[in-house]
Amino acid sequence: MWILSFLPNWIFYAVFIAGLLGLLATFVMKFIPFFYVYKTPVQLASIIAIAFGTYMAGAISNEEAWQARVREMEAKVEAAAVESAQENVKIVEKIVRKTEYITRRGQDIVQYVDREVVKYDTKFAPGGQCEIPKEFIEAHNRAAEAPK
Question: Which pTM value belongs to this model?
Fold first, then answer.
């Protein structure tokens, strides 16, 4: 409630107690002739003050319950954030390992191709046939396979 954010809680309890005191005062007004005339308006104001004080006390209690739930959920969110950060670290480590594996595998294939080029380099003389060796085709096929 918006009024709870502007006024301190003790004011609503004071309104409730003032309503109770006003209602009790109307019973004492019977004995004082001049104040007896104001008995009905004082009773009405006292009953309204009691009802308002009771309502606002319930609202204060409800607000405190909701604030407790908000604090509980914030604690759960913080715990989930910490757990998420730990999982993110694990995921990044897996990605780094896979990237290193793929890079290493690519380097191995490049080294293999470089070794095999030396063997077939003599066949590529000017005016000669350009024949693709079987080893190149196998190396190309292995490079295209998914990593295991």
Answer: 0.54
CA distances from 27 to 46, 133, 148 (A): 12, 116, 92
Number of compact structural domains in the chain: 1
Q: Quote the pLDDT of residue 83.
A: 94
Residues 50 and 19 sit within 8 Å (Cβ to Cβ): yes
Each residue's pLDDT tens digit, 93-135: 999 998 888 888 878 877 877 776 666 655 555 555 666 677 7
Q: Which domain holds residue 40?
A: 2-144
Task: Please give the DSSP secondary-structure letter assigned to residue 121.
Answer: G
Backbone angles phi, psi at 61, to 5 degrees: -60, -45
**pLDDT tens digits, residue range 45-68?**
999 999 999 999 999 999 999 999
Enumerate residues 6+ apart whose C-beta is below 8 A from 34. none
49 CB-contact burial (10 Å; exposed 0-12 / middle 13-18 / buried 19+): buried
Nearest CA-CA partner of 65 in 53, 73, 54: 73
